[in-house]
Amino acid sequence: MGYFMTSRSQNRPNIRAVAMQAGVSTATVSRAINTPERLDPETLKRVLHVVQELGYVPNLTGRSLVMGRTHAVGVVVPNVGWPLFASFARGIEMELNASTLMPIIVSTDDLQDREKDAARALVERSVDGLILISSNLAPGEIERLAPNMFRVHINPQIDGHEHQIRVDDVAGGYLAADHLIKSGHKRIAHVAGEFRSGRDRAQGFLKRLSEEGLEPFVLYTGDFTVEAGEKSVDKILEIGVPDAIFAASDLMAAGVCRALNRAGLRVPDAVSVMGYDDNPIAALLDPPLTTIRQLDIELGKMAGKMFLSLMEGEEAHSEIIVPELIERQTTRSRLRR
Amino acid sequence: MGYFMTSRSQNRPNIRAVAMQAGVSTATVSRAINTPERLDPETLKRVLHVVQELGYVPNLTGRSLVMGRTHAVGVVVPNVGWPLFASFARGIEMELNASTLMPIIVSTDDLQDREKDAARALVERSVDGLILISSNLAPGEIERLAPNMFRVHINPQIDGHEHQIRVDDVAGGYLAADHLIKSGHKRIAHVAGEFRSGRDRAQGFLKRLSEEGLEPFVLYTGDFTVEAGEKSVDKILEIGVPDAIFAASDLMAAGVCRALNRAGLRVPDAVSVMGYDDNPIAALLDPPLTTIRQLDIELGKMAGKMFLSLMEGEEAHSEIIVPELIERQTTRSRLRR
DNA sequence: ATGAAAGCGCTAACAT
DNA sequence: ATGTTAGCGCTTTCAT
């Protein structure tokens, strides 16, 4: 690493400069900033005038050191670049905006080592706490890395964390199957996804089917991508043409639709299709995709809210988010009138 | 705001705890961390052992105070939740990962006041510098808010900033028109966008047309949304059916495609369509959208790189990014063989 | 090679 | 109502 200039930002006026200029002690300046009501109006006015004049901006680093708080909270996500996590981060930011807390977002690429590095870097910065989504770290591990820190976990891959928010993927899968069944579909294929979320969605799907005494038409497992959705259609059509296909992600559903179109099967006339996520693309597909909404921004807001309540001394608790159905135009009732 | 617990994170071992336990001075511990080569191997080993034992993690707040650097850089974007800015932020993060710098991302909702607040909050945190994209602040304003700070500006709405990166929207519009003209389209409509970027794209588009002696079929201005794209088609079809429609955003292009389909006009057989951005949805539309790519991640990386070089003392300079054509399946040659 | 001491910018007893 | 002073965790001269 090269040589870093550091001289430029050095000349910011500090509390002492203000104090001297105003002819008061630094304590008085501090009070003018933090507890103005405890100051003589005259002095206050004089101090604030100097603050203005010098363009004094308090240095939070100094304050943090004595207060033992940075008013920063680390947000650990797999990748801020991805829409889901971007929205999630934005939700946290919105919620925290009302407080004095500022989120610091770090991406891990879903790598355990990078996650450890991230946690460590945030601890070094003495953040007041951590919000982690889709973490791969075991509770003991994270406690070792960030001891005694306020933490909120969203959908950790490894169980046993307190202060959890879980998105109920089982309920989401169940909801999708329920919608298809209620609108008269019988032969329903599922393009499942990986990881816990994929498995949970499949589980909920199967549960609803079994309540009806139905078997899945086909179960195919993909990796959440468009290509996986396209490939799944090949497999499915080898068996026959189902009434409906439920894919565990909107991307896979997009692939499913595209492949069905190519095979000359119109959506939803020939086959109904459902996705999962309510990815921004869902509404833009033609026809717009019926899907299960994961309210990412809301999830972020909820996480922010839970973090705030933790700092205020609230007991550990968990919450569960139940996804909702967004009915658009890729599903269509098969009930005869 | 309620009462915040603060006792939890207080008991982190500090440099003095390590020093005492190892029977050395704090200076030695500091050296063990920062300049291990200047220590007696025996002492070093002993100190590091205690560091391990106690789980000592240096407190960057203290270090920042004495060093006058936080190794943090503020990133000011309109909204981290939007794909473009999320990718941009991710690009910065990737570039900065190799250094000791950590980005702190703040959203402003494109509001001047929020932007001032953001700048101020980041200055309070004593960030080493600022990266701003689509800023609405005048150079003097931002200099007043963040005096003597390293700054990189990307596409500011107000000109006159140093260390700029500009995305050449004129070239992008030119490129789109060029592609359509070279593939034999004559009657070309443009659905323009707002702001400087929208105007620039339109300008480039018109420039290429005029080189050919062509007039635009229609010029309609929308607000970058899907709905604007749909509405534009109504207006365009009032005049007639063009050979091609070039929309200033992929979202508008998606709306254009949808409306054309509804009107019974197949894309690209009846009408070619082009978008702009290479939004993730572009590849997923059916048919996949031909568009102009704004390499958002690359833009972020470039911004990070420029910031790093600034800190290393490099002179102020500007860069321009020229977008590239991504040819997919919504355009089709009208040249007879 | 290591330690003692000063100081980065700030706040909070404590004193007046 | 305001000032004095100590100290938050760390690095860095200056001694030794």
Distance between the termini of chain A: 74 Å
User: What kind of sheet is the major sheet of chain A?
Assistant: 6 strands, parallel
State the low-pLDDT regions of chain A, or none: 1-9
- Portion of residues in beta strands of chain A equals 5-15%
Radius of gyration of chain A: 27 Å
Got a strand count of chain A? 12
- Tell me, briefly, the overall form of chain A: elongated
Strand order of the largest sheet of chain A: 2-1-3-4-5-11
Query: Greatest interface and its residue counts?
Result: A-B, 73 and 72 residues
Number of helices of chain A: 12
Q: What class, by secondary structure content of chain A?
A: alpha/beta
Percent helix among the residues of chain A?
40-55%
Query: Multimeric state of these chains?
Result: homodimer
Protein name (chains A, B): LacI family transcriptional regulator
Organism (chains A, B): Deinococcus roseus
Domain HTH lacI-type (chains A, B): 13-67
Keywords (chains A, B): DNA-binding, Repressor, Transcription, Transcription regulation
Q: Care to describe what's here?
A:
2 copies of one chain form a homodimer. In chain A, 49% of the residues are buried. In chain A, helix 10 crosses helix 11. In chain A, strands 2-1-3-4-5-11 form a 6-stranded parallel beta sheet, with helices on both faces. Chain A has a 4-stranded parallel beta sheet with strand order 7-6-8-9, sandwiched between helices. Chain A has a two-stranded antiparallel ribbon with strand order 10-12. The first copy, chain A, contains 12 helices and 12 strands. The radius of gyration of chain A is 27 Å and the shape is elongated. In chain A, strand 8 (244-247), helix 11 and strand 9 (272-274) form a beta-alpha-beta unit. Chain A has 337 residues and is of the alpha/beta class. Chains A and B meet through helix 4, helix 5, strand 2, helix 6 and helix 11 of A and helix 4, helix 5, strand 2, helix 6 and helix 11 of B. Chain A binds a DNA duplex (16 and 16 nucleotides) through residues 14-16, 24-31, 34, 38-40, 43, 58-68. Chains A, B: It comes from Deinococcus roseus. Chains A, B: This is LacI family transcriptional regulator. Chains A, B: InterPro entries: HTH_LacI, LacI/GalR-like_sensor, Lambda_DNA-bd_dom_sf, Peripla_BP_I. Chains A, B: Residues 13-67 form the HTH lacI-type domain. Chains A, B: Pfam families: LacI, Peripla_BP_3.
